[in-house]
Amino acid sequence: MTAHMTIRIQEADFDIAREISALTKGRTDVGAVVSFSGVCRGSEDDQSVSALTLEHYPGMAEAEIARHAQTAMSRWPLTGVTVIHRVGRISPGENIVLVLTASRHRQAAFQAAEFLMDYLKANAPFWKREETAAGTAWVDARSHDDAAAARWTKS
């Protein structure tokens, strides 16, 4: 069976169980599915956050995420990958991102999911603006996200 890949960027929320079902439907070679869902927090650095607005460059973002998903599929023996990233205004408690990786064995699925999330946090072409009581501000890149992503490229 060939590996299945789904990449979507959307404003609408997603249903995690439905996405896992779609990834594994009809597959008898899947022994592990790892899921990571990122949720909008209501605070950052002890400051209340009322919402996030995420923007992207349509077409480019999907292509870049797909490129990294292909890298994950060539690096680990995966049977499938799903990456869904929301854009638009997102309130605390709402889903932001979903990464699913499926494999015959759990280790590959865990490592691939971590690799993909490290990429999404550090390098995916999204821009995030936080809304707080003090106003709105674009969120700068964080060095710990860059360091997490860099470990995958070390020899």
CATH architecture: Alpha-Beta Complex
Instruction: Give average pLDDT, whole number.
Output: 91
What is the H/E string?
EHEEEHEEEHEEH
CATH topology heading: Aldehyde Oxidoreductase, domain 3
CATH superfamily placement: Molybdopterin biosynthesis MoaE subunit
Q: Give the % helix.
A: 25-40%
Topology, number of strands: 9
The largest sheet is:
5 strands, antiparallel
What's the Cα radius of gyration? 16 Å
* Relative strand content: 35-45%
Instruction: Specify the number of helices.
Output: 4
Low-pLDDT sequence parts: none
What would your notes on this structure say?
The strands form two sheets. Strands 3, 4, 6, 8 and 9 form a five-stranded antiparallel beta sheet that branches. It is globular, with a radius of gyration of 16 Å. Helix 2 runs antiparallel to helix 3 and helix 3 (106-122) packs across helix 4 (143-150). Strand 3 (43-44) and strand 4 form a beta hairpin. The chain has helices spanning 16-24, 60-75, 106-122, 143-150, and strands at residues 4-10, 32-39, 43-44, 47-56, 78-86, 88-90, 95-103, 126-132, 135-138. The chain has one domain (4-153): Alpha-Beta Complex (Aldehyde Oxidoreductase, domain 3), CATH 3.90.1170.40. The chain is α+β, with helices and mostly antiparallel strands and 155 residues long. The protein contains four helices and nine strands. 32% of the residues lie in helices and 38% in strands.
Short description:
Helices cover 32% and strands 38% of the residues. Strand 8 (126-132) and strand 9 (135-138) form a beta hairpin. Strands 3, 4, 6, 8 and 9 form a five-stranded antiparallel beta sheet that branches.
